[in-house]
Structure formats: C-alpha cells, structure tokens
Amino acid sequence: MSDFDLVLSGTVVLPTTIIENGYVAVRDGKIVHVGEGVAPSAHERHELGKALIVPRAIDAQTHSLSQKDREDFIWSTRSAAAGGVTTIVDMPYDEGNLVCSAEAVRIKVAHASPQARVDFALYGTIKPEEGASRILEQVEAGVAAFKFSTFGTDPIRFPRIPPALLEECFAAIAPTGLTAGVHNEDDEAVRAAMAKVKALGITDYRGHGLSRPPLTELLASLQIYETGAQTGCPAHVVHCSLGRGYEIARSYRDRGFDATIECCIHYLTLDEEHDVARLGGKAKINPPIRSRAEVEKLWEHVRAGNVTLVSTDHVSWSENRKTNPDMLANASGVPGLEVMVPLFVKGALER
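RE: above sequence
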C-alpha cells in the first residue's frame, strides 16, 4: 500500500527552478516530497500533463467587510480557495468596526474564524483622535501590520492620517519590527484635481483618472518612504499604478531603507483606454487604472524584481454602488481573489 495520500504529476514550479516532468507527493494534508520522473504510487493520483503545479498564494490585501451584510469572510475565503489563495491579509476599514484597538481585533477574529475557509491575518490602524496610543496593544493582539492613508476616503471608516501623525505612528511601530502600509494618494492634490474635473463637467470614465493624475500618487509615495527613512520603520506602499513609483521604491532600497511596494493584479491587466472606457464605474479603483503603456511598464518592473508582491485589494460592492453614470460618484475597488493567480501566470507567460 502506498505511503502517500495524493500525488500530482505535471510541471512543478519551484522558487528557483521548474521541473518539467515532476511530481508532488502529499501525506496528511502536507507536501512531503517533490521529485522528478516516475511518480510514486498513492491512494489518489492525478496525471496533469503540461499543467503547472504552483505553490499556494498569499493575498496580502483584501477587504472582506467593507460593505455590511454583503460579502463577509465566508465568501471572500471561498473565493480565495477557488483561486489558489490559502491566506488572506484583511484590511482594517470594516463598516461598523474600524480595527483600531485590541478589542476590535478580538471582535474581528471571533467574527471571521467560524467562517474562514483559508487562513487569515489582519491589519490594524488608528483613529486620528487617538493618535498612536493603541498601536502596541494591537501588536499584542496579533495584527500582522498596520495600514494608514494619506487620503481621506471617509472621515470615520477610512480617515486621512496627516504627516505629523503618520510620523508618530511610524515611530511607534518601528521598535516592533512590523510594517506600516500606506494608501498613497496626496489628499490636497487629489481634492484640487477633483474640483477641476467637476468644474469642467466631466462625468464619464475619463473623470476618475483626471481627478487622480500621476503626481498625486508619487508625492504620497515619497512622503511614505521618507517618513520610514526618518523613523526607521519599514514603509510599504500598498498599491502603485505607475512605473515611476517602483523606481522610487527601488531607490530607497538601494540606499539601505526597508521600502517595499505592492502591485495589484488589476494594474497588470486592465487599462484606461479600453477597460475603464468599457466598464465605467465597475473599473473605478484608487489609485486609478492607467494607460496600456503604463501597464507594460509595470510588467517590466515585475521582470526586474522591483515589485515586492502582487495582491488584489479585493472588495465586493453591491452593483448599485458601481454603476452610477457619474464616474466619481461610484465606490472604489474591485473583486479579484479568484483570478489573481491565473491572470498573473497568464500575463507572465505571455511576456
């Protein structure tokens, strides 16, 4: 009788090599052997030919509870499992429970645990009026990292953290060794651009990109990395739509700073001139989807090793919040948990 419960044969993708005629052997739910050539016997075997056998993925940016009574962890984690993602890291901006204290962390863990079909970790954040006072208690409660925003989407659920307070939070986090992740859009610059778009009466798909031009994103990224450099805190830009942003992150790393950067799968697949024009509000994301030329720049940064990680920034809004003919009136964000891994592999193979 076989010693293995399951054996998969096919093209095995490992961190440093690809085994064309390989196999993966599983016992008690764990991979215990990877080999090449004739596969061993097992209780269950699958010959997958040229299909890729890849490691499971971690999605480091998801929003399971942004709209109350809509998605929840049962659905986000099922979608994750369907897409080959076995761990999600959920953001703290939940409708009805901003994760900004140890108690809020415990509430979310208790809520999510019975539902979750894959592993999950949690980001923490702060209330601006409380400053950094609850940072350490959230570390003790088990958060994996912290999330802030240089742009105020909502004064309660998704508040702007001004520069002095951001520095205070980074300084409090630095001794813990955790990372400070930040939504990278300059509040003042975005609001000025939005006012200009509204004054011009632009309501179609073009309005969103015009309301958040490249400089609004790059100014915020520079603030984030320089704050990390000054405080000694690992600084992470949680989504970057521009090739220039990856150059900035690389320049800080080359000087010895802990400066990481994340690319969402939608920035590697969708473009403004085709997809946003076609989808309208359903493709409204902050920062915006950029041009096809910018998409290809991002792939070059993937190739060059300048992209720290790829995520989804997954969020599932009700359709009525994504179909307003006035582009700027729609909620921001898209789902993506089921498609991140296949779309990334497809894009990489094509290039």
